Amino acid sequence: MSRHADSSDEELMLLYRDGDAGAFDVLYSRHKGGVYRYLLRQCREAAAAEELFQDVWMNLIRARAGYTVQAKFTTWLYRLAHNRLVDHYRKASPAGLVSLEEEGGDAAMEVPDSRERTADETLDNRRQAERLLELIAQLPEPQREAFLLQQEGGLSVEEIAQATGVTRETAKSRLRYAMSKLKQGMNAWL
Amino acid sequence: MAVKEEIAQDANGERNAGLTRIYGAARRDEPPAHLDAAILAAARREAGARPRRLWAPRAWRVPVGLAAVVVLSVSLVTLVREEGGDELYRPVRPDLTRPAEPAPQPSQDAAKSSAAAEPAVAPGAPRVAPGRAAETQDSRRDAPSRRARGTAGGRATEALSQPHPQPFQGAAESPAERTAAPPPADDPARAGAAAPDRGPPPAAVMDRSPAAVMSTPAPEAPAGTAAEARRPVPPAAKAAPPRAMRGERDMPAREDASQAASGAAAAAPQSEAKQASEGVLSRQQALGAQAHPPRVAAILKELDAQPPEKWLERIQALRREGQTTEAREVLAEFKRRYPAYPLPAELQ
């Protein structure tokens, strides 16, 4: 595995396409956490997240033969995850799909004011994280997805747009809304 | 992501360092180990198939198999064509049943030598030889195609039908060389026919090699001499004589040439005293040529170049002269030569 440590994701995927299983091990170790958390935060159910996670990687394995470097690997990977997630929402509930596809939704979100919390509610980093996760979970799905893609996949606005199949401006707008709400909710600690 | 870009995103409200830091602390969730194992195993299985590398050798099997099929097919077609070539000679044979063209008279020297050698000829030798000796000679010239045929019948057919564009060289061989060659183990009949204890064959016998016999154009021609044997032989003359001329009417029409050859070889010991020069020509013909008393031989020689009418006139003249034996001999010879020629009532 060490011989692949310095290789880019794209190089590793090309190596795996050509039959190098070790390259896939490195790729998987690099991205398994991000993809898993992206799915977990989106569907909010561990069991569903695991199923989706396995499907995403299996789709990647099956699609390896046709892989060519046309974009950043993570963009492709999270595009696979996004598509699988959309399928999951379609099966689970059409409403969920509508929720995922709607552009607005920021007005509906009510971020609890941190000042309402008691003074002795001093949160450590863990509790801050839990609070942030709560806030993330309350985000509209498109905004949440944009935020997670940025944080977990390290994608830029353009890459988020590619991964989610929207325009750059849409992706940028989603991301800005998400950031704004999260900052508002985490204001006491930021 | 570059720091510059992050700062720009911070300014645009697309990124917040504090949120990123806090979210980083929340990254504790990882996929379960069993999922890791399942996915990695699946990835290894797929990579283990190694389609491009492993399929490469398999991909060669198809072209290699096709090439083998093509080679075999071409070989088969070539062989069949060669066999067909032999078949093509058969329709030519009936043409030989037509009245033979005047046979070239042997040279005086050849006649003398053959006459001198005639009594000492071991008739079995030329009988045995057509297939085997011709094969021996031909195998030196065109061994590959000969070997490809491989069957006794094929060899006999070739021996009877293959043209010999080059003069026969076998006469130049030493007697020891000729007699030392054992008969082929796969042909006991011919071997047996070749076996008669002839002792050291005289030179004339040596000259009566199969090819030389085959090349002898006329039945009256005396036993072949070395000079005669060395003469280039036209292909038509070397083709197997018609069945009628060979006196083998009792044999099936489509009798295999190998059977004919082996049959002739098997009958050779019994006809040793009568057989002579015309090895490939029928033994009957050879018998006639050999058994003719000098008087009949002279008549036959005289009539050799004559048309059938002259033959009949001469036969009738002989009958009128009371030379019935000669007339009968000449008539028999006439029938052999012109089997389809209508005979007058008194001669039938």
Relevant terms:
heterodimer; A: 190 residues; mainly alpha; 9 helices; B: 348 residues; 0% strand
Overview of this structure, please?
The complex is a heterodimer of chains A (190) and B (348). Chain A is mainly alpha-helical and 190 residues long. In chain A, 68% of the residues lie in helices and 0% in strands. In chain A, helix 2 (21-43) packs antiparallel against helix 3 and helix 2 runs antiparallel to helix 7 (141-153). With 348 residues, chain B is mainly α. In chain B, 62% of the residues lie in helices and 0% in strands. Chain B contains 19 helices and no strands. The radius of gyration of chain B is 40 Å and the shape is rod-shaped. The chains are: A mainly alpha (190), B mainly alpha (348). Chains A and B meet through helix 2, helix 3, helix 6, helix 7 and helix 9 of A and helix 1, helix 2, helix 3 and helix 4 of B.
In short:
The complex is a heterodimer of chains A (190) and B (348). With 190 residues, chain A is an all-alpha fold. Chain A contains nine helices and no strands.
Rg of Cα set of chain A: 18 Å
From the structure provided, what is the oligomeric state, counting identical versus distinct chains?
A: heterodimer
Strand element count of chain A? 0
What structural category characterises the helix and strand content of chain A?
A: mainly alpha
Overall shape of chain B: it is rod-shaped
Q: Which series of helices and strands of chain A comes N to C? A: HHHHHHHHH
> Which stretches of chain A are poorly predicted, pLDDT < 50 over at least 5 residues?
101-109, 115-122
- The number of distinct β-strands of chain B equals 0
Helix fraction of chain B?
Answer: 55-70%
Q: Describe the sheet with the most strands of chain B.
A: none
Radius of gyration of CA atoms of chain B, rounded to a whole number: 40 Å
Helical fraction of chain A:
55-70%
Roughly what fraction of the amino acids of chain A lie in strands? under 5%
* Largest interface, C-beta within 8 A: A-B, 46 and 35 residues
The parts of chain B where pLDDT drops under 50 for at least 5 residues are 113-289
Distance between the termini of chain B: 122 Å
